[in-house]
Amino acid sequence: MLQLRWDNQFQFAGYYAAVWQGYYAEAGLDVEIRTVRAADGDLLSVTEEVAAGRATFGIGGADVLLARDQGSPLVILASVFPSSLVAFYTRADSFIHTPRQMVGTRVLRRPNDLTDIQFRAVLQLEGLGLADVVTVEQGASGIERLQSGAVDVVLGYRMTAPFLADQLGMDLIEIRPETYGVDFYGDSLFTHADTVRLRPAMVDRFREASLAGWRYALQNPEAIARRIATELEPGPLVEDALAFNRFQATRVTAMLGEEGQSLGHVNRERWARMQAKLFQLGLVASDELAPAAFYTEQDSIERLLDWWRQLTLWGGVGAALLLLAAAIAYVRLLRRHVRRQAELLALSRWQLALTVDAAREGLFEWWLDTDRVGCRWGRLADTPQLETETETDDLATFLAKLHPADRPAVATALADLASAGGGYAEVEFRLGHGDAAPWFLLRCGMPPEASGRPAVFGVVLEITRRKRAEQKLERLAMQDPLTGLANRRCFDDALARALAKAARQERRVALALLDLDGFKPINDRFGHEVGDAVLQETARRLEAAVRTEDLVARLGGDEFAVLLEEMSHTAMTLWTERLLAALREPMHVDEHHVRIDASIGWTLFPDDAERGRDLMRHADAALYRAKAKAAGASRAVAVRILEGGPPALVPAAGDERR
Q1: Which domains does the chain have, with CATH numbers?
Q2: Which has more confidence, 365 or 311?
Q3: Helices 13-20 and 221-231 meet at what angle, rounded to 10?
């Protein structure tokens, strides 16, 4: 039994493909796939179904770590989606663009499911909690309740919510947890520890058949989408099943790629970081993730000994003796098999060498007794300058060829394997120097010393394109898509760095928050296109008003932030006057002449506060005072909140409101 985490849809295409293409049957498995909806209409908990033995395998993410913390011995088998599918949705015509703007709003939650876990994590990282929002329990369709105005925020999935909203003709604002520092794995395959212990061969076959199904689905998305739409019962909210599954197929293939090269890979360090993040948020009791959380193949003899110990305890001495006789016979057969395999090993290595020359992989080996490193690079993509084979005198010579920033990680990974006498490691590195150096991934392990000369063996994959794409995504994750300015995540990081630098150098830093006055009427009167153009022009004028070492960010909506280094009180007063005057100049958008005002709240480090959170609080309070003053005055104002004192008002000279 495979327990899904939602309805029949392309999000689970690989498992359907494994059934339809016969991969499970070829592995000797008869797999039933069950959706999340119980017979009575209730939604099942995937981790509870697997922990209780009502399902053999399940699909989960951070909920697996929570279940393990509560005593369920669940084991992660394979990670399918490298990033979370969770997002928080608000109406496009709402004022809610950031988690901070959710304070006091009605949030549709399903307590302790995957969306809720990441929602709570984001709130805590933003200095908020569930007490700051009004919780509405999950009931009817969240998107329909968002459209009707019954709720203000819906926690959902990027694979479903945008499509359902489009069906209703509603535009959404999508708030992603990773923008605020919560970047979890998406769908991952898991099972119970007892299943791994008692039926390891079956677990191997299920895992491999499932991944084979995923590779087929990614290469044939249209065919699988059609079969899901026509042969399986859709969820209750889906009207056009084919269009819905095509929508998901596009998103899934964009995320995983047609080849699905990273399918099934489990990055233990990343899972450990997820555990540590949950611990920091008070969601689990320990910040360490035990090795038992991950699936590893046991040696055949070790499995045999495990069965021996179990039967000794269960069946008594008589049963144990019978098993011992069978074990002896099995071991003799196994030894003959090993000798045969040894004869084939030399031939296999020769065949492998030929294969590597034609493949997009390389081979790595490090012999500890001679400290000799050998690398057969093959024909790796994008690196035609590499020699087919590189043989170095020692490990130090090999490390010297790597990018200086990557040498410590590679050296540490190899040293850990050598000191442990076994195990597995993954490490990324660049070969050469400079930003243009190609990227590689080394996956290596060390067999037990009893198997022969101590050595580390591995494969090298060329990952330059993937790393460039990740770097591009990282840049996009730190940038506001409309204005090109830094976003909230980038600004928070820059603020922390600027304060640390200013503290060391004993210099001042100014933080200003700016809010446009009268923006909503412009947006309502002329439409979103004109409103967007006004925001873009505002961003351009803000950037023109600062130095290259300063930072301008858009926090959301019509709210901006500016970080200025080495600014005094007098300099800030003059700067705000000039900025308000510049923003007051008419904007020419299409055939419209638009005039807009602004209010500014600002504060100084270390004069007013020494922590970034306190500075933001001061600047926010100052902005609130400024808007209150501007609402009843004829002049735009900038306000600074003084620690323990009244606000200081700075009028913008000659800035008459009309």
Answers
A1: 2-82+185-293 (3.40.190.10), 86-180 (3.40.190.10), 359-465 (3.30.450.20), 478-656 (3.30.70.270)
A2: 365
A3: 90
